[in-house]
Write a structure and sequence with these properties.
Residues 6-112 form the GAF domain. This is GAF domain-containing protein. The protein has helices at 2-14, 36-48, 52-59, 67-73, 75-83, 114-134; strands at residues 18-25, 30-33, 63-66, 88-96, 99-108. It is an alpha+beta fold and 140 residues long. The chain is globular and about 40 Å long.
């Protein structure tokens, strides 16, 4: 997962307006976060089953939401976002061959092109997940 975390850190720099991010995988591989704030905000959404990242996972469509939409559609998430000073979120589903793998989420203040860049970032994460799945595992 170290390689995935390194890839995520690089992708946060590439997405306009992103300050932190998370890649959450559905197949038991867990999640990687750029920092404690990203972990807390992402974990809370999935624990409650509600929020923009959960919506992206459920719908299979990207979600780009500013603070006003966050307050309207996900009030619980909005409280946590305010605590961590998050002004927006872009979440893209990670899908390979029509199979959901998880979500890639970025938090910050976003420019309109952030969603398209995040989609491309999702492809990079899928590629990294593929490599990690193929890597031999050490058995203790």
């Amino acid at each position: 997962m170290r390689e995935l975390r390194n890839a995520l850190t690089g992708l946060v720099v590439a997405v306009p307006g992103a300050e932190m991010g998370c890649a959450r995988l559905l197949d038991g591989l867990g999640a990687v976060h750029t920092d404690r704030r990203a972990a807390a905000i992402d974990d809370a959404q999935f624990a409650r089953g509600d929020g923009p990242c959960v919506e992206a996972a459920r719908s299979g469509r990207p979600v780009l939401a500013a603070v006003t939409e966050i307050r309207t559609f996900w009030p619980e998430f909005a409280r946590a976002a305010r605590e961590f000073r998050i002004r927006g979120v872009v979440a893209v589903p990670l899908v390979e061959r029509a199979e959901p793998l998880g979500t890639l989420s970025f938090y910050g203040r976003f420019a309109p092109e952030a969603e398209e860049v995040a989609r491309w970032a999702g492809l990079a994460v899928i590629d990294q997940v593929r490599r990690e799945r193929a890597a031999p595992r050490l058995v203790r």
